[in-house]
Every structure is written in structure tokens, then in C-alpha cells.
Design goal:
- The chain is built from eleven helices and 16 strands.
- The protein is an alpha/beta fold and 401 residues long.
- It has two domains: 2-38 and 181-246 and 350-400, FAD/NAD(P)-binding domain (3-Layer(bba) Sandwich); 89-164 and 248-341, Polyamine Oxidase, Chain A, domain 2 (Alpha-Beta Complex).
- The strands form four sheets. Strands 1, 2, 7, 8, 9, 10 and 16 form a seven-stranded mixed beta sheet that branches.
- A hairpin with a 6-residue loop joins strand 13 (280-283) and strand 14.
- The longest helix is centred in the C-terminal third of the chain and has 26 residues, at 298-323.
- The chain starts with a strand and ends with a helix.
Length: 401
């Protein structure tokens, strides 16, 4: 049996932050990760020497994002170029007039959300509204789920707390977060399957043996938590809360782009503004010869059904429809994510189901003072972000300290 003072279960942004806080305070800590890598939904891969973020990629709300200072103190380069999500390069497939009409439809929808009498965001849509597919696509990107599954109160709590300042890490957000775990003791490929709290010390069951600990911080995703993958006697309220905060789907593709000099760095295209299943395309991020594609909600679900090759074919079809058929031979798949099928994660980021925004707070209320929960889903205003995950991990560690 392995013996440790505090066990941190899950090696994503929350788990790394909790373990780092405890270790820096002089406590004996073990970071226990079910997969063979750190970072969780922040995952940087290197393809042809290019660092590509398959998960978290933006330092959202950079003014109050603690990862900014950590990145710079760790020797990573923060690129302060703002995203151009509201722009359509050369107005391809999305005229200026239509862009204005779509933006107005979103602003009107936002105002209706603040007066709608229910907590279901879809109730603020105009039945048969011309721009409803566009609004549904936006929900996929923002919430990783469609409006029918989104709590109004939860969505507004996030939007009202967020800022429009989004930066990036040149060497990869995922690489930077993983680097924050330097010199921490880590047990890889060690999923915790049960926590026995009947004794004076907690007993954590894993396929590689039992780990005894005085306390534990659980940072696994809500989809894994609610799946029954880990047995937590007496924690029915926590498990139910997790089920009300499911992870939607948000996936990325990266396409190699040949002969790209005529395209400005960080240009943006929305594939089809009149479809819910469409891609958001950042052309030449950091000036690199790639296109970063994001799918969310219905679009991500469709792409996961198609697989990476099918998703890439869909992206190339959308791009060549906008940019011209001559580009087809200049695009090819480099890498992509499929978070809904990724073991030990099982989805994108959390959203509260209608009527259940209070589940976020429930996750943070300990049933056993020795066991705390952390992760983006535990944040009441910064969920779905790596900085929200970090703050909850630090808070859980400080509670045990």
C-alpha cells in the first residue's frame, strides 16, 4: 500500500494547481492521473515542430486569468493578439449586411434571456427565427451544447463575469499547464476506482494497488464522476450534482495549409452562418501554415460520429466552398481531438442543465471534510475554462491547509 498525506485525483488544470499549492506549502502530495499524460482537457501536441492545442487554447478573460502570470514566469510566451471571431475574412459567404443582422439577432437573444420566465435558454429563441441556426452554432462554441440544455442563470453568470480579452500561449496552453507540475510526484495510468472513507485514513483503490491518504482532492470531470467510474459511498448528492453539470462536446481539427502567404495571420471564417453544424476557422494562427478548426455542440457530435477523416473532409468542403476549389489540394489533416471518446474525460466542458445552476455550489460543499472536489465545473462564474479550474483547485488545497 502506498501512503501519502494528500492525494490529488486527476492531473488536469485543477489537479495540477491543487497539488502545486500543497507541495509549495510543504505537504506530502501525490498527483494521481488515469491517463499517461498531464493537462486533462488542455493538451498540446507537436506536429512537424508546431505546437497545436487540441483542447484549451485561449487565456480567456486574461485580465484576471492567473495562468498569464504563471506562463510568463515560466518562460512561456503570451501572445496578446486578440481573436477575430466576430470577423469574416473578405466577407466570404457572410455579407456585411448578414453579419450585422446575425449580430443583432444575438444581441436581441441576449436581452430576451434576461427577461425570459423560465431557466431554459432555448425559450428565449424566436420560433422559426431566421438566425436560430446561427445562434445554435454559437451555443455549441460557447457552451459545448445546444440552448435547450443550457440554464439561463448559469450562462449569464459566466457571460457577465467574462471579459473580451483573450490571449494565447505561443508554445501551447496545454504544454504550459503540464509544465506547472514540474517535480511533483505523479502516478500515471492509475485511475482511482473507489474511495473508502470508513477508516481514519482514506483508502483509494486503483488497478495498481491501494493508496492510503489523510485527505483527497477529486478533480475528475463531471461526466466521469457521474458515470460511476469511481465509487464514493455517501456522496449521492455530489454524484447527482455532477449529473446536472454534464460536459458537452467541443472538438478541434488542425489542417496543414500550403501556399498561404496571401492569407493574413489570425484571419477568421465561420463555415456556414445559417447552419447549426458548422466550423469556426482561424486561418494561420500565430502566422503558422495551418488552419485551426473548432466544432461545438451539435457540430462536434456530428464530427465525432464521422471520425477525424470525415470531420476533416467536412471542414475542407466548407473552406473550399468559401475560398474556392483551388484550395482543396492545399489542405490536409494534421491532428484533431475527440473528447467525447477520450477515456478519463468523456466530453468538452460543463454546462448546467436548466434549473440546476446551483449544482456547481453543491460540488464544493464537503460531505466528508477530508474529501474536496475541484475542477472547472465547480466554478460558479468561470466554468468551462482552465483558469476557472485552477482557481477551484487552489481553493480546495487551501481548504485542506
Amino acid at each position: 500500500m502506498h501512503d501519502v498525506e494528500i492525494a490529488v485525483i486527476g492531473g488536469g488544470a485543477a489537479g495540477i494547481s491543487a497539488a502545486r499549492t500543497l507541495a509549495d506549502a510543504g505537504r506530502s502530495v501525490l498527483l494521481i492521473e488515469g491517463s499517461d499524460r498531464l493537462g486533462g482537457r488542455a493538451h498540446t501536441v507537436s506536429v512537424g515542430g508546431l505546437p497545436l492545442d487540441l483542447g484549451a487554447g485561449w487565456l480567456h478573460s486574461a485580465q484576471h486569468n492567473p495562468w498569464v502570470a504563471i506562463a510568463e514566469a515560466s518562460g512561456f510566451t503570451v501572445d496578446r493578439t486578440l481573436p477575430r471571431w466576430r470577423e469574416q475574412w473578405r466577407e466570404l459567404g457572410f455579407s456585411r449586411a448578414d453579419q450585422q443582422a446575425a449580430r443583432q439577432a444575438f444581441e436581441d437573444f441576449d436581452q430576451r434571456l434576461r427577461t425570459v420566465e423560465t431557466d431554459c435558454a432555448a425559450d428565449a429563441l424566436i420560433p422559426g427565427g431566421e438566425w436560430n441556426p446561427y445562434l445554435e452554432a454559437l451555443s455549441g462554441f460557447i457552451n459545448s451544447a445546444g440552448w435547450p440544455s443550457v440554464s439561463v442563470a448559469d450562462y449569464l453568470a459566466y457571460m457577465d463575469a467574462a471579459t473580451d480579452t483573450d490571449w494565447r500561449v505561443e508554445q501551447g496552453y496545454g504544454a504550459m499547464i503540464a509544465a506547472h507540475a514540474a517535480r511533483l510526484p505523479v502516478a500515471f495510468s492509475t485511475p482511482v476506482t473507489a474511495i473508502d472513507r470508513s477508516g481514519t485514513r482514506l483508502r483509494l483503490d486503483t488497478p495498481r494497488g491501494t493508496i492510503a491518504a489523510e485527505a483527497a482532492i477529486v478533480t475528475i470531470s463531471t461526466n466521469v464522476l457521474s458515470s460511476g467510474a469511481i465509487t464514493l459511498p455517501g456522496h449521492d448528492a455530489i454524484l447527482h450534482a455532477a449529473s446536472q453539470l454534464p460536459l458537452g462536446l467541443a472538438d478541434k481539427l488542425f489542417l496543414a495549409l500550403d501556399d498561404a502567404d496571401e492569407i493574413p495571420a489570425n484571419a477568421h471564417l465561420l463555415g456556414n452562418p445559417r447552419a447549426a453544424k458548422t466550423g469556426s476557422y482561424t486561418l494561420r494562427p500565430f502566422g503558422r501554415p495551418v488552419i485551426e478548426v473548432m466544432y461545438g455542440g451539435e457540430g462536434a457530435a456530428e464530427m465525432e460520429r464521422r471520425g477525424l477523416d470525415g470531420a476533416a473532409a467536412f471542414a475542407i468542403d466548407e473552406l473550399t466552398t468559401l475560398m474556392g476549389s483551388a484550395w482543396r489540394g492545399k489542405l490536409r489533416l494534421l491532428a484533431g481531438s475527440c473528447w467525447g471518446r477520450t477515456d478519463h474525460i468523456l466530453g468538452g466542458y460543463s454546462h448546467a442543465l436548466p434549473g440546476h445552476t446551483g449544482a456547481r455550489k453543491t460540488l464544493t460543499i464537503p460531505i466528508d471534510e477530508r474529501i474536496r472536489f475541484a475542477g472547472e465545473a465547480c466554478s460558479e462564474t468561470e466554468f468551462s475554462t482552465a483558469h476557472g479550474a485552477r482557481k477551484t483547485g487552489v481553493a480546495a488545497a487551501q481548504a485542506l491547509l
